[in-house]
Amino acid sequence: VQLVESGGGLFQTGESLTLSCTASGFAFDGNAIIWVRQAPAKQREAVAGIASNGSSHVETSMKGRVTTSSDNAKNTAYLHIDHVKPEYTAVYYCAGDKVMLCFSWLLGLWTYWGQGTQVTVSS
């Protein structure tokens, strides 16, 4: 399994961004995925994800700003964030799991991880 994130870069406060997670050896249809970020000197934190049944989950503080989606034909998942802030500066990762029946915010339960993509938001 390989997960590859892309779409990171430098953004201005208030802009929108969309990150992609392209998979090989892993199908988003029927499997769970989570988006996680790690800011400098901070622990990884979950942002949003999609459960194996297709339902979306968004961390409370990000509700209203974040949407998740996937394109099964392209085997790619997306994380869209509106109105970005400097505090969103972090490395963003996608992670997946093939056996997770109920979506979990516990990061240690996720099996497959991408290498991350850097997002920098300037003020």
In short:
It is built from no helices and eleven strands.
Structure explained in plain terms:
There is one protein chain. The protein has 123 residues and is mainly beta. 0% of the residues lie in helices and 50% in strands. The chain has no helices and 11 strands. Strands 2, 4, 5, 6, 9, 10 and 11 form a 7-stranded mixed beta sheet that branches. A 4-stranded antiparallel beta sheet has the order 1-3-8-7, with no helix packed on it. The model has no long low-confidence stretch (mean pLDDT 96).
In helices, the fraction of residues equals under 10%
- Distance N terminus to C terminus? 37 Å
Uncertain spans, ≥5 residues at pLDDT below 50?
A: none
Q: Structural class of the secondary structure composition?
A: mainly beta
Portion of residues in beta strands equals over 45%
Order of helices and strands: EEEEEEEEEEE
Rg value: 13 Å
C-alpha geometry:
globular
Give the total of beta strands: 11
User: Main sheet, how many strands, which sense, barrel?
Assistant: 7 strands, mixed
What is the mean predicted local confidence, pLDDT? 96
How large is the count of helical segments?
0
Features:
single chain; 123 residues; seven-stranded mixed sheet
List the helices and strands and how they pair.
Blueprint: E1 2-6, E2 9-12, E3 17-24, E4 32-38, E5 45-50, E6 56-58, E7 66-71, E8 76-81, E9 90-97, E10 112-113, E11 117-122
Parallel strand pairs: 2-11
Antiparallel strand pairs: 1-3, 3-8, 4-5, 4-9, 5-6, 7-8, 9-10, 9-11
